[in-house]
Structure formats: structure tokens, C-alpha cells
Amino acid sequence: MTMIDLNSDLGESFGPWPMGDDDAMLALVTSANIACGFHAGDPAGILRSLRSAAERGVIVGAHIGYRDLVGFGRRNMEPSDAELFADSIYQIGALQGLAKAAGTRVAYVKPHGALYNTMAHDARQAAAVIAAIKALDPALPLMALSNAPVVAQARAQGITVICETFADRAYMADGSLVSRSRPDAVIHDPKEIAGRMLRLLREGLITAVDGTDIRLEAQSICVHGDTPAAVAIARRLRADLTEAGIKLASFIR
């Protein structure tokens, strides 16, 4: 590959409680998944992040999640179809309003945390979110876990899918992410992370925790904004990819 998008989850601070360094990350990424207030973020903080993204020319996506501020959206939940459908529209719509005020627009949708991982394999919850996107704006792409069943499910409904891989997360042999309950779920070393992503872009392969190689489709790479080394990881990854002749650019043309 000669071009790749680099994204991060931002806008997650809440009132006086900071989460990550949005300004530093926005100087490094090409797309930003902005929290919509359900798993993290308050309206004033979200608006600041949107304005910062607009100033830097970084595209933004609606980072929708379960209604779970206390659990940061990382607890498994079973909302009804009607609830998840309406909650998804509510979050995307709220971000669309804030984005317009910030001089930008919502260019895609990326579910967060437990919703993202559940949707990857749970056709019912995936269908509710896909239906919400179609009802609001069927032209909005869905960012989803590479190789997961949700990719084919969304494409079958006419939704453009951006296949995503994770720079700082470990993978199981089936292509799913290692559970955050395990100590080896998150990778912290910037050098190791950059090496993994370079191999992925050159060979299409990444090594799972059991040592097997798995093949992944990738249009975007995620670096989580809430980890302590997030900025260092994104900076090293951007530098190493650029040195290797890989251009970082948004998937929105």
C-alpha cells in the first residue's frame, strides 16, 4: 500500500476531567472519531475538538457508543433494536449540529468500544446501527473491524465500509481484538507498533497473540487517544510510515 488513513478516538474529555491530548493528536492523524456524549465527552469539549479538527483539515466521524459514561462505553450491553436505532441517530445528529457550528461536517460513523466489538459479530445490533445510518444519511461510511461479519452485512445494505486495523491492540487468531480484560490486550511500545503496521501495509499480515499470521484488509489505522503513550505512538507511526514512502491521507477524497 502507498496510502493509508490514520485515525484516533478524540473529544472524550468530560468537564474538568481530561482524556488524552486532542490538539497533539490532531496534528498527527488524518481522521478523528469524535465522542458524541454517550460514552464520553461533554458538548463544550466536543465542540472544541471539532473546531480544532476543522482548523487542521482533519475529517471527523461520529464515535457513537452505548449509553455508558461510567464504564466509558466498554461494558457489554443489550439495548433493544428500537433503543439502539434511536440512540445512534441521536448521537450522530448531535455531532452533526456541533460540527456545522465548528465549520466542518460528520464524514463517517465509527462505533466505540463494546458497541464496536459487539457489532462486529452480532448481526442484530449491527443491523440497528446500519438502519440508523441509512435513515439519517445512507452516504455516511461505516468504519468497522477488518474481516468481521459486519463488513459484509453493511456492504449488502449499500453502506460504504472503511476497514480498520488497530495499531495498539493485540489480535486473536480469528481476527478479533484481544479482550481488554487480558494484560496483553494493549501494545504500548511505539517501535513495536510501527513495525507491526509497516508489515501489515507491505504484506497484508499481522501476527496474532498465538503467533499465527492473519490477513487483514486496511483502509485506516487507529491509535487510541486515551492511552498514556498515544501521542508518542502516533508520532512514531507517522514518521516511520512516511519514511517508508507511505502517504498518510484521509479515505475521504
From TrEMBL:
One of its GO terms (biological process) is carbohydrate metabolic process. The keyword Repressor does not apply. It catalyses: 5-oxo-L-proline + ATP + 2 H2O = L-glutamate + ADP + phosphate + H(+). This is 5-oxoprolinase subunit A. The keyword Ribonucleoprotein does not apply. Forms a complex composed of PxpA, PxpB and PxpC. It comes from the Bacteria. Pfam families: LamB_YcsF. Belongs to the LamB/PxpA family. Its EC number is 3.5.2.9. One of its GO terms (molecular function) is ATP binding. The lineage of its organism: Bacteria, Pseudomonadati, Pseudomonadota, Alphaproteobacteria, Hyphomicrobiales. Keywords: ATP-binding, Hydrolase, Nucleotide-binding. Catalyzes the cleavage of 5-oxoproline to form L-glutamate coupled to the hydrolysis of ATP to ADP and inorganic phosphate.
